[in-house]
Amino acid sequence: MFAFGASVAGAALGLVKQPDPGGQVDQFAFATAAAVEVARSAGERARSAEVALTAVQARIAALSAVEQELTDFQDAERMGLARLLRDSTTLWGNQRQRVLSAIVRESRRNGLDPALVAAVIHVESRFDPFAVSYVGARGLMQLMPPTASWLLEKDGAAGRLHPAQLFNPELNIALGTSYLARLMDRFEGDLVRALIAYNAGPSVARSLQRGSKSWRKLEVYPRDVLAAYKAVLTPPQQVAAR
């Protein structure tokens, strides 16, 4: 009986398989591969979610820009800026909206009255974005290419400006308003002298003696700008009543 019991116990013990080191390695490799696959899938999902989020953010930014442009355009309409564009034959449809919006946006960015900037554009180019003067000034605000390049450098922009880029209305307005604002600062808020500087150059404006023959000659330009400025600020009802 003792021998029989021993043999049964031995058989029972034999049924319990001892751990196989090779099998454990296989299981560990399988678990590791599964974990790597899960991590890879999670990484791909995270990247896809990041791309989707970036796309949504870009879409929101674009919609916000469109909304802001519409708001600026409505402000331009309320200010009466569109009255100066009535005779323009080179700006149509959405171009007019973009130009008026840019005038409001860039004027406010540079601390200027949008009606004044619109008056400068009216006198300079009659709102012709492809206007070129006999000295080579270009675009809506009649900027000289060297002046525009200098302004871009001051603003920290990289790259070289091609003169044809000044025919881009929004870029031209951005640079022109920046230049006019700098001149206003340079001449301590003297609008007439700043406008003479815009038209004839800062060095000329600085050397002019108020009331001199040269002053009277160059004063024609600011007088024209201020007349257009007044036309914008005067409600049509008051003009019709005269």
Structure description:
The structure is a single chain. The protein is mainly alpha-helical and about 240 residues long. It has a single domain, classed as Lysozyme, CATH 1.10.530. It contains 11 helices and no strands. The protein is elongated, with a radius of gyration of 36 Å. It starts with a helix and ends with a helix. The N terminus is likely disordered.
Strand content: under 5%
Tally the helices. 11
| Largest pleated sheet | none
The residue fraction in helices comes out at over 70%
Total domain modules: 1
Q: How many distinct beta strands?
A: 0
User: Any idea what the shape is?
Assistant: elongated
- At CATH's second level, what is the architecture? Orthogonal Bundle
| CATH-defined topology | Lysozyme
- N-to-C terminal Cα separation, in Å? 136 Å
Order of helices and strands: HHHHHHHHHHH
Poorly predicted regions are 1-6, 8-17
CATH C-level label: Mainly Alpha
Mean pLDDT over all positions: 84
Structural class assignment: mainly alpha
Structure in a nutshell:
This protein is mainly α and 242 residues long. Helix content is 71%, strand content 0%.
Set down the secondary structure blueprint.
Layout: H1 2-15, H2 21-79, H3 94-109, H4 114-125, H5 145-154, H6 169-186, H7 191-200, H8 202-207, H9 213-218, H10 220-233, H11 236-241
Give the key terms:
single chain, mainly alpha, Lysozyme
